[in-house]
Queue: 4 jobs
Job 1
Amino acid sequence: FRRSSQSATPKSTNRHITVLSQYCGIRDEVRRRNLIVGPSLQTVASRRRRATARLGPLHTPLQSTLYDLEEKESTASTSDEDTVFALSSGSGVTAVAVIRISGRNAFDALKQLLSPYSLEAGAEPPKLPTPRMASLRILYDPLSSSDHLNRMRDPLDSALVLIFPGPRSFTGEDIVELHCHGSRAVTSGVLKALSSLDSVRPADPGEFTQRAYGNGKLGLVEVEALADLIVADTSLQRKQALQQFDGRLSRLYLGWRKELIKGLAHAEAVIDFGDDEALGEEDSSFDSSENDGGMSVWADVRPRISSLREAMDRHLEDASRGELLRDGLRIAIVGRPNAGKSSLLNLLAGRDAAIVSSTPGTTRDVVEVVLDLDGVRCSLLDTAGVREEIEDGVDEIEIEGMKRARLAAQEAHLIVGVVDCSDQKRGLEAVQELIRADGHSDSARSSPHNNLLYVLNKRDLFEGEMEPCGVDSETFAISCTTNQGVDIFLAALSKRALAMISQEGDSSGDLSVVGTEGAVITRARHRRHVEAASDALQRFEVLSSQGYMALDMAAEELRLASSELGRVTGAIDVEDVLDVLFADFCIGK
Ligand SMILES: Nc1nc2c(ncn2[C@@H]2O[C@H](COP(=O)(O)OP(=O)(O)OP(=O)(O)O)[C@@H](O)[C@H]2O)c(=O)[nH]1
Ligand SMILES: [Mg+2]
């Protein structure tokens, strides 16, 4: 740390250091090393300029120190010096394969590949393509023998070559992209050639993105969005990930955090002045600050913080739409044995995923099929038929199957009850029994009827008109054999699924599905931190009404809220998150 304001007294500077190290979660480190370290004054000044350009004028020493520190955090973690390469397109044979090289030796490595003669033997280095312009070049194998004048190296491929000098690149470092032919012989030849160079090494999974993060090219929330985008299965998942990637969510959190830091700076200033005035003076000055300063400190801050907390609470009250869309809905198919559950699953999946037979009790394990219902990712779960354990032919395996069926129903977001329409009464009872048994009320669903659809199957075997079956959930008469009624049922199921990830009154699947501003919580991690921030602000509201004595404590709550938001965006304490996150990435990303 370095004092960044001449006007701050040593005492308040020290306080800032304590506050800041606590705020950054590095207090113990600072204590242990007993060190006060900081960048040169010049660096501080240039960071301050950058922060000012980004965030507007800085008002107080504390605020400017905070910004300095944030800047330092984001630049301190630049990636290591190695230059890395990887096949960034999928493995296996493709028409085009993209190989990326990132790091300060990237261009040197490219020169090695572009040179038809050995550079070590004194050949003239080849010219690099114009930055960001595709150029068709021959790649040569540095492993093949060549001498300066006579023998050329073996060509590896004729490839499109692109270079992106840092920092204007994905990782912020120099990047080379080779668009080769996608055969195994070409890609393995180029990768082998790169491996033979001392200056580069193969990349770890997610290392390109990690470098982009380390160099401040992507925020944590964007990295998470990128991870989601890479594995998105459906159109709505893609839309949501793209919206998050475009920075909507982090802008929201950064905006909130900026507001909190403003309030905090305000409080710190008052704490300092209060302290300094009190120095050497008696209780009289303390009294005055209690009456005036104490009450008015928060006068402008409180309403702003209150509305901030309201915004957070609104943000949290989203019925987990973003998370549902990201993780997918679970739809359990339940009912009596032989009702046609497995037949329905196979029909919807378009393949024979589960065994169908006329023997009751065929399905034992839960069979899962992933479906894209109008852009919503859904896991459809076929379960064992439920019936009385005393019925004929029930063995212990089937009992275990029924247990699993109940569990699947419990964890499902939607339940499809399949009933043989020639045996409606028993069929409906079995489903209702199952739902009662799972104690729905405390699950994610508010009311069981909202999340239950009945399918009256084997319509083809049923003669005459269907009687209304007297349940208050939607029912659909279908036949898995003739496909009768299946389209209508599928449309209703999709509508339900969409409604669960949409805002109220909107089931169109438009962009607005994922929130009017697109800023939707997509991970439990975000929810946890935003909840903690909102809780802290609630405590702040109480403490800030208690005058000067509680000033410190109230300020502490603001600090806490701000650091919780900092954890979402990655400004603070994110090592553990990063480890987990980058482990999910594939190599070459
Ligand atoms: N006629 C007719 N038969 C059907 C229909 N749907 C299913 N079946 C038959 O009903 C029998 C049972 O079907 P499954 O899909 O295995 O029933 P299930 O509910 O999975 O049964 P369990 O796995 O034992 O719980 C099979 O012989 C199917 O061919 C239908 O709509 N019409
Ligand atoms: Mg079955």
Job 2
Amino acid sequence: MAEEEEAAAEEARVDKAVEKSDVAISVRGLKNSFGDQVVHENLDLDVRKGEILGVVGGSGTGKSVLMRSVIGLQTPDEGEIHVFGESMIGRLDDEALAIRKRWGVLFQGGALFSTLTVAENVEVPIREYYPNIGPQLRDEIAAYKIRLTGLPAEAGPKYPAELSGGMKKRAGLARALALDPDLLFLDEPTAGLDPIGAAAFDDQTRKLQQTLGLTVFLITHDLDTLYSICDRVAVLADKKVIAVGTIDELLATDHPWIQEYFNGPRGRAATAAVTREREKTAPQPSDGRR
Ligand SMILES: Nc1ncnc2c1ncn2[C@@H]1O[C@H](COP(=O)(O)OP(=O)(O)OP(=O)(O)O)[C@@H](O)[C@H]1O
């Protein structure tokens, strides 16, 4: 018993230390496998509070499984996961409830309920986590979240089948924001959008992150997204996070996948576009000949 109490006290001390730090998500020694297939082994990652962390890696490297482990949809074989200082492994559902309320998730493809309107979709987490909130306030919250994502108010009574791909993503984002989260998980939010729609979605994500002070865990294959809104990028390969840093820091490493990804033709095009954009917005030196 004394040993159990000591272990619980130690866990509480660790939780407190992590909560006080500037780390929103801490993953240590994570292992995930499906049968014989080991997806993650000894994976470590820290997501800092207030940053947009881009998560990249080849198809099947386990980006979604990592996200699912953090939000409790996948029980890892081994490892520790803390979110805002709270250990997430082995917690009963009701124990983890308080922390679950602090995050919102946009799954790949939006994952909207097709038989519910956009507004009803946004209301799902409010009904689930705050059953005492009455219908009028729920409607008002949903309408506010819908506007927050840049959707017109008229989108509220529409069904997902009546929306464009970009509108579906925004509706999914509105639902992810329903509970005023501190932490947002976005799984390939710009996949399937045209470049203009993707850039607009990125802008919206950045604006929301800045105005609401969000921490964002963003899985993407979209180089433009990485360059334009991510503060740091984590690279998954060889079953773990092989590097985390700014794109400049990643470019300084010599891992072949990183070099091929960022220095391949698409990577170079994205770099060139960002360089052009920076040159356009940088203050011009005055030569005194006005
Ligand atoms: N529920 C599951 N059962 C069995 N295998 C799974 C399951 N979920 C994921 N996997 C396997 O785990 C590996 C990693 O999957 P995951 O979806 O995390 O990859 P990803 O990096 O997100 O890929 P992509 O970029 O293509 O979306 C894949 O080989 C996948 O088949």
Job 3
Amino acid sequence: MAFLELKGIQKAYYLDKQAFPVLKGIDLQFERGEFVSILGESGGGKSTLMNIIGGLDRNFDGQVLVNGELLDHRKEQQLDNYRRSMVGYIYQSYNLISHLTVLDNVLVALDMTNLNKDEKRQRALKLLDQVGLSKQVHKHPNHLSGGQKQRVAIARALASDPQIIIADEPTGALDSQNTREVLTLLDQIAKDGKLVIVVTHSQEVADHGTRIVHLADGKIDGDERLRPAYALPEDPTHIKPRQLPAAASYRMSFKHLMYNFWRNSLIMLGTAIGIFAVLLFSGLGNGVNGYIQNQINSLTNPRSITVFKNPTGKKLTQDQIQSSLMQNMAADPQSMVINQADLKRMAKVTGAASVQKGNMIGGYRLSYGKLQQSGSSMTTWNKSVTANSIKHGHKPGKGEVVLTKQQAIQLTSPKKYRDLVGKSVKLSFNWVNTKGDPVAIDGVVKVAGLSEGASAGTTINYATLQHMLKQKGADTRPNFATVNASSLTNVEEVANRINNLRNGKHERILGAITVGSILKTVNTYVHLASTILAAIAGISLLVSALMIIVTMYMSVSERTKEIGILRALGERKKDIRRLFTSESIFIGLFSALLALVIVAIVTICLNHALYGLIKYNIVQITASDVVFAVVVAVIISFIAALLPARYAAKLNPIDALAAD
Ligand SMILES: Nc1ncnc2c1ncn2[C@@H]1O[C@H](COP(=O)(O)OP(=O)(O)OP(=O)(O)O)[C@@H](O)[C@H]1O
């Protein structure tokens, strides 16, 4: 039984369904320890035969038997295993992987063996030493001479200790000195008990072997034994093949990424800008939203509902309630009185947590020394006002008021207005008694603080105002109420229920004003803006994904030959796919990290620049934004690599090896 046997091998290439037969029935037997040269005219089918022997070609008729066992060439997996365990290739054009060092080129073959990390390294170094390259191990192939490159290729072919070495014109590109050295190495390989099959045009090379097979017109027309085959040594090999582990693909992808560092950096920068846009817009959305909420909440209590009497009995909008307020107060103050029954009904409304009585003065005069000021609205301090609206001083205690900054300026001067805090001012206004007769009220109150900003208002201590009214026999009943909703989410419902309270004639009796409605409008706009920004960011992510797809396709076409080399070494389609998806995932991951660095810098700068102005961090990136960005980047880069990786895996290894 021969070690390797070819039986009735036939092969034809097809062009427009027309068959061009190349091999027309080849029967050959080979033994280990042989150094066989295959000679023949150009185009005679030598390389085609080598691809069949080497397990690269699946489309032929006939049988290949190894140790008497049929190699099922229709099954891809069987051929992958066969190449991985049995065959080592040496090519005329060396076919080294340019982005790997000499040592790594040899280690690629060793990745598919059962040796541990140290053993692999030791073996690679030993083989490189044997071919005389121990000083060149860390160089890249483009820094080697032709002879040196071919010796690296020989070391790689021997790395996994295969029993068959196929060399296609191994000395075709070498000078005579290097040719002699390579032939000596090949002879030594045969001496070590391997089967060496060399395709050559050179009689000198052929004479070096133990046997010459001549191929003409697709048939064997000569088989000459020059010397007996070398005796077989005892089989010392302990190296067992195994499938390529995923970690090896990741390592190789990473090395390729680093080899093309600058080009990849630009791609990563491009992708990172897309991810950065998503992060920044999301952070800005969070910040703006938070800022507006914060502004509104700091000045007013969003859970509070201000309730007035509705003298019309009809349904009124919040704007209508507000605009008719002053007029009603002046024309018929009695019509605005909220009685005990109203207060009780409000308190019973579902979702109302508390009801607070209040008085609003429609028009009043303040005087400080010789200066006077007239105001149009002063309310008793209530739950809708927050202490944050007071910028200087504090909320009004007994006998105290809070004025607006503007009022303080009018009563003093633009430079000294703050001095008014703690000073007493005279307050006078008109009111009515329970019969509706006018009563003039006046008294001295102390300025507790000054309110400032959009919702600044004038407020007076409730007990103080009640006391002033009582003293003059005026009506002390409330003319507005503050209802606090039990939660932020039911403010509008509570307001609606209050608006719907009716008297015996089925007329509406109260009108409710909420700050929640303002908040809602603002939130709608913020949400709209965030959606638009997210869409823009989404487009930039799409561009990033397209960029990765293009890059990966470019990478596949640049690395076509490498794909062929790796397939010839025994890598599966799956390994090739992983090579490209993992590289893309690295790009995605590094882009995300780069985006995080950029967004961190921009966030710090923007927040720093704007903090002085708005006292708020306008960009707020949350931990979930960061996780989202990294996950999205990895997913997008993985998806973007799927098509190119699939394309790479499907390449025919023979065509890939023939690529320029
Ligand atoms: N993929 C292919 N499609 C079509 N025809 C092919 C293909 N590959 C090879 N051939 C043809 O098959 C024939 C044998 O080619 P092959 O490369 O095996 O010859 P060879 O003996 O190795 O030649 P050389 O010594 O010049 O390398 C040639 O005529 C070639 O044109």
Job 4
Amino acid sequence: MHPKALLDACATLVARVLKFDHPADAIVSRFFRENRQLGPRERATLAETAYGVLRKKLLYEHLARSGSGPRERRLAILGFHGPRDFLKSALNEQERRWLDACDGVKPEELMAPHRHNLPEWLAGPLQQQLGADFLPLAESLMQPAPLDLRVNALSAKRDEVRAALKKEGVQAQPTPHSPWGLRAEGKPSVNRLALFTNGAIEVQDEGSQLLALLLDAKRGEMVVDFCAGAGGKTLAVGAAMRNTGRLYAFDTSAHRLDALKPRLARSGLSNVHPAAIAHERDERVKRLAGKIDRVLVDAPCSGLGTLRRNPDLKWRQTPEAVQELVQKQGAILQSAARLVKPGGRLIYATCSVLPEENEAIAEAFGAAHADFRPQRAADLLDGLKVADAQALCAGGEDGRLYLRLWPHRHGTDGFFAAVWTRA
Ligand SMILES: C[S@@+](CC[C@H](N)C(=O)[O-])C[C@H]1O[C@@H](n2cnc3c(N)ncnc32)[C@H](O)[C@@H]1O
């Protein structure tokens, strides 16, 4: 495709994602369906340009004020993902001069919002929470996430999968903490590999893998993944159970559970029982009360720990929506807790970085449920031989209570988990 035509297409896509009427990934997929002639490289440029603009929206809007021509075109130029020479061949002389001037702006000359690129309602609390670590977090949230894979412990060994990937031209390193993880170099498309279609690998952030590991579900147990969605964690838990016992995958969205089915078929698991529930107090939940060994509540949340993958979320979320989620999270955790049998384990997890969706929910639950004893996540991870477990945790008197993962510290999405045992 000619550079000029590609830049025009980028500007069109940027205009669409900036409407925020749908999630950015859905808008990008739709754009590709409408433009089937686009090759893989062009698609990568288009998607990364749109995501680049979402990641640095405040900075680019600030710089775009000084340019000329349509605003979306200026934003697409600033966020363009590709060689500078290629981009410049699509620009007129005036645009080239303007881009050079923009490239010359030094970070120290910028105002804080143009450096962190977060909405004020989010920047303030994060700054308060993190202090000097705020800017490193903001910077890490503007980077694309690496491609993490989870090796299906039921059917494959990590070293063998790593060697097989290498033969396919995919270089991958073992993830630092998850025993099931491989971090691929670059952005290889793994979906067409036999390793993927035969269920030996799934795409899953290392942080998600650690949540499933923390549940430590054993052979033959009764386990509930209360908010299973498309089953990312369900699949990891089912494999950890060695395809024995019974693993219920609940979710209120039948549509999301449908997406679990082909993944289940690939995985070779037959111990998973997906079930759509009407709400967290569904009859099915009541029938299983007090019978379950391990319950994972991967609660619906703001998703603000996943901004590397979903940069549009920072512009689409609102403080009001977070408050609604907080109510929901408390209610779901309380209902799901009823399932746990005496001696059983309960985990509350989110992929948010906000204390109100994390520690506050865990503390309120703990205060109201004396029969649930908090467990130190770091002790459990040590027991599972996870390297540097202490460094992955925070909270409690000794900083070992909660799993607390951060992109700038751990290279994962932002995750939180609290663990209890029922007395
Ligand atoms: C964070 S996502 C789950 C992601 C999934 N565990 C995974 O690893 O891929 C939260 C899920 O909670 C579901 N959900 C929302 N309200 C719920 C409720 N009241 N009871 C159960 N699930 C609910 C949503 O449909 C969504 O799929």
